[in-house]
UniProtKB/TrEMBL annotation:
It is an enzyme of class 3 (hydrolase). One of its GO terms (biological process) is proteolysis. Keywords: Dipeptidase, Hydrolase, Manganese, Metal-binding, Metalloprotease, Protease. One of its GO terms (molecular function) is metalloaminopeptidase activity. Pfam families: AMP_N (PF05195), Peptidase_M24 (PF00557). Gene3D superfamilies: Creatinase/methionine aminopeptidase superfamily, Creatinase/prolidase N-terminal domain. Residues 15-152 form the Aminopeptidase P N-terminal domain. The gene is Pepd. The keyword NAD does not apply. This is Xaa-Pro dipeptidase. The keyword Magnesium does not apply. It comes from Hylia prasina. Its cofactor is Mn(2+).
């Protein structure tokens, strides 16, 4: 069909850019129901910008800002996007590149190219943003400003030369667009199924390859190689965690200070927490298994305690169930099992009262997943 899509060839997934048109439509419908949104409002978002390594000219591979990706699906840096809330009309603003770009970076495309590539209603240069928006005579520009409660960081609010001539509201948009991102469309779920399928296969390849004497980073490398060659995944959703032995109990092991560099030993458990990312949609999968292929009695007992908790949650979870209740259920099963195998002694109800489960599961039961691995909408309050 002539409908545009994102695709990296071979067996990778074709993602129709209609996915983002639907996201924009849902956002506009939601905003129109908000009594604080006046007629003739325009949503304005600023995309991510290319960065370099510190003071050098070494580029860091660009990955789009998540809210901008959700709304437009644009892979290029330095763009702005706008959506007319009343009509749903979409506008993309792309950078006007210097002639030298053609020599160093490749073909320079006109705005019309991006209009077709992303199936938006209008495309212009970023330099024209002030004039184009002024002609629309918007009552207000709705810009994105809000705190990500996982990181404490604030989203970058759109700004351009001449924005001061417009009425700007940066309070309304954030809670509404975040709420839209929480509920995935069927098209989004299709992409998430794909990223998790490829990542699952990659984990299985790693399991087959692990041998005592190997370095943890060899497994990280194999995972990334599979995700990229088979899945077209240039990025992972987060830094790969390849914990063997006691490293397996460090939640976010694998960072630069502890870079998956231990040698895997006989008798180790491996806890590998890794997920690939395709077209900015993530995955997050953790597997625990014995490096030599055989659990010790103690390893099996603890593994089966966690498995039992997982199964209990999967059985109980359904629409309408409260997330904290599921966390408490997992905690209780852990404590019951740890008592049964003799690691803990005492009354499980008393253990629950003093939150003893937090010693063994200091993180939450889970998190939402989407364009970010810790996706928006976790509601920590």
């Amino acid at each position: 069909s002539s409908r545009p899509f994102f695709w990296l060839g071979n067996d990778t997934l074709k993602v129709p850019v209609a996915l983002f048109a639907l996201n924009r439509r849902r956002l506009c419908e939601r905003l129109r129901q908000n009594k604080d949104v006046q007629k003739n409002s325009i949503v304005l978002l600023q995309g991510g910008e290319e960065t370099q390594r510190y003071c050098t000219d070494t580029g860091i591979v660009f990955r789009q800002e998540s809210y901008f990706h959700w709304t437009f699906g644009v892979t290029e840096a330095g763009c702005f996007g706008a959506v007319d809330v009343d009509t749903g009309r979409s506008m993309l603003f792309v950078p006007q590149l210097p002639e030298s770009y053609a020599v160093w970076m490749g073909k320079i495309h006109p705005p019309e190219f991006f209009k077709n590539k992303y199936a938006v209603d209008e495309a212009h240069y970023v330099t024209e943003i002030s004039n184009v928006l002024a002609l629309k005579k918007p009552a207000v520009l709705l810009t994105l400003r809000g705190v990500n409660t996982d990181s404490g960081n604030v989203s970058k609010e759109a700004s351009f030369e001449g924005i001061s001539q417009f009425n700007v509201n940066n309070k309304i948009l954030h809670p509404e667009i975040a709420e839209c991102r929480v509920i995935k469309t069927d098209m989004e779920l299709e992409v998430l199924r794909y990223t998790n399928k490829i990542s699952s296969e990659a984990h299985k390849e790693v399991m087959k390859a692990v041998k005592v004497g190997m370095k943890e980073y060899e497994m990280e490398s194999l995972f990334q190689h599979y995700c990229y060659t088979r899945g077209g995944m240039r990025h992972t959703s987060y830094t790969c965690i390849c914990g063997s032995g006691e490293n397996s109990s460090v939640l976010h092991y694998g960072h630069a200070g502890a870079p998956n560099d231990r040698t895997i030993e006989d008798g180790d458990l491996c806890l590998f927490d890794m997920g690939g990312e395709y077209y900015c949609y993530g995955s997050d999968i953790t597997c625990t298994f014995p490096a030599n292929g055989k659990f010790t009695a103690d390893q099996r007992a603890v593994y089966e305690a966690v498995l039992k908790a997982s199964r209990a949650v999967m059985k109980a979870v359904k629409p309408g169930v409260a997330w904290p209740d599921m966390h408490r259920l997992a905690d209780r099963v852990h404590l019951e099992e740890l008592t049964r195998i003799g690691i803990l002694k005492g009354n499980v109800d008393d253990m629950v009262k003093v939150h003893l489960g937090a010693i063994f599961m200091p993180h939450g039961l889970g998190h939402l997943l989407g364009i970010d691995v810790h996706d928006v909408g976790g509601y920590p309050e």
